[in-house]
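Re: duplicated header lines in exported structure tokens

Our pipeline writes sequence and tokens for each protein into one text file. With two proteins the header for the second block appears twice in some exports. Here is an export where it did not happen, for reference. First protein block:
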Amino acid sequence: MITGLLYRRFPKLWIPVFALAALVLVSLPFLQLWLMDKGYHGRWLDAPAAPFTLPSATGDVISLNQFAGRYVYLYFGYLRCDGYCQAQMVTLFLLGQQLADKPVSMVFVTLDPERDKPEELRATIDNLVMPHFYAVLPPSLAAAQALANDYQSRAMREGDWRSTTYKIAHSGEIFLIAPDGNIKLVYTGEHLRADEMTDDFERLIAKVGEK
């Protein structure tokens, strides 16, 4: 009754009121994500990580399950990437140095198993001089894409597939997987900072310790 009276007396007032209400409803999911991300430099997720068991550059088999009790930074890229792959690898190297005394492993999954040869991947890992840095070598591009898709990470070959100069367009996320098997944080962009990721890690393990 009161609402009807107000509507008759101030009909133009209700247009912005309804628009504001609609805006609030649409913004609720994004507001929730913002609140969840608050305090972290990466995007908070806390969703199950897709399991995998794939060959490594050393000829062994690497499974996500073998990292039980450790935190894993998982990255999809390839050696001939002329984008931000190299910057991401440097970031992981610096991050590994800063977290050297923590239960942390780095896993690089090549999206270009046809050109990234095992010896090249081994040389790259050896140059990083990190005992807990692993290179995963899927048996095919399709297998690499399938695993990337499981993590909702984009990966698509561009250019003439018959040429050896093709590129692989990929979104370049780094996923932080906790010992409970969940992806806790996702990092995107080429301007990642190892010190910010270290800050996130310290905050995350402190939060786990409070439980």
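Second protein block, exported in the same file:
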Amino acid sequence: MGSNTYLLRTQMWAPVSLREAFDAVVLPGNRERLALPSLSFHVERPIEQLAPGIVFRCTAQWQGLPLQWRVRITDYEPPFLFRDEMTGAPFLFWHHRHTLHPTEEGALITDEVDYALRWGLAGRLMHRVALERVIKDAFRYRQMTLNEMFCGGRARWTDPAVIVQPLQTQP
């Protein structure tokens, strides 16, 4: 039996400039700061600047299990967009789109992640039982941390939502 793909989507409205928002989201030094502490996330040999084609390795732990994966930056259009793809860990694929738009009150930051797990039925069960919650918690933590970094708690955001989709060809 096949797998499912999932789409996670969340948005944040922050009373900061588009450039401030973009820099906070993309600065390589912020990746570990924005990660859920319980995952022990680490970027091996952090890079100074993002650009299309840049690849770096990340490690984390979940439930005591060590995870490793590679991240490749596929698109980089400051201050409006960047995309990254993760390969490895439990994911068949993970495509993360970060888009930013100016608004009257500052910047709108949208995160959309298309992903699929390995392991067919076992992967779907793992997603339902635990992994979806961990992914949502990680994005909630990211939003709360960005909120404090940006504006001392004045931002507002949507709760991360995950939509299940039938498996299709990778986007």
